[in-house]
Amino acid sequence: MFFWFFNIVNTIGTIDDLIENITNQNIKILEIVEKIFRNLNESDIMLKDLCEIKYGKSITASKLDNNGKYTVYGGNGIIGTLDDYMFDKSKISISCRGAAAGNVLLTTSFSTISSNSLYLNLYDESLTLPLYAFLLKARLNNYVTGSAQPQITIENIKFLKVPIFDDYKNDNF
Fold first, then answer.
1. In principle, which of 100, 109, 158, 165 could form an S-S bond with 95, CB 3.0–4.6 Å?
2. What angle do CA 40, 43, 48 make, to 5 degrees?
3. Mean pLDDT of 115-138
4. At what angle do helices 128-137 and 2-37 cross, to 10 degrees?
């Protein structure tokens, strides 16, 4: 009888430890986001000054499967796999067509991004996480045009003002 009770106590202790770790991670993320947004109103840097904005690769549905080695991202997340990849490092991806237009994703390394998304080739890759955090909060759905087929174009977002990141490049993200 007591053995069962101690198992429950140990499990609860493990769950409490997990909750504490997740809470600490969330606090760290909030601290990073607060640092990023501190200079937002002072910014005159545009998205196009930080990166090259490109459209993803057109991929036929017949090439996608779940047996490939590398992940393929569509506008709303993972859509399948392929045997080759476009990028060896993570990329910021922005859904540019359909109901998901404006969704922001951070891909895994060794992945491909479909033509339903834009991707950012950052001139300075150390800005990936701060820019990703900013874009998550930037309400990119406000840049969507079109009614029958909602879309975001490179032209729509290239002048998006972003925070000054120089102060944050050397922080431990």
1. 100
2. 110
3. 91
4. 90
**What pLDDT score was predicted for residue 25?**
75
Query: CA-based Rg of the chain, rounded to a whole angstrom?
Result: 20
pLDDT score for 33: 64
- Asked whether the whole model's pTM tops 0.90, one would answer no
The residue to which tokens 């859904």 are assigned = 95
One DSSP character per residue, the chain reads: -HHHHHHHHHHHHHHHHHHHHHHHHHHHHHHHHHHHHTTGGG--EEHHHHEEEEE-B---GGG-BSSSSEEEEETTEEEEEESS-SBSS--EEEE-BSTTTT-EEEPPSSEEEBTTEEEEEESSGGGHHHHHHHHHHS-GGGG-B-SSS-B--HHHHTT-EE---TTTTTS--
Paired residues of 113 in beta bridges = 73
Q: Amino acid letter at 6?
A: F
Q: What is the 3-state secondary structure (H, E, C) of 25-70?
A: HHHHHHHHHHHHHCCHHHCCEEHHHHEEEEECECCCHHHCECCCCE
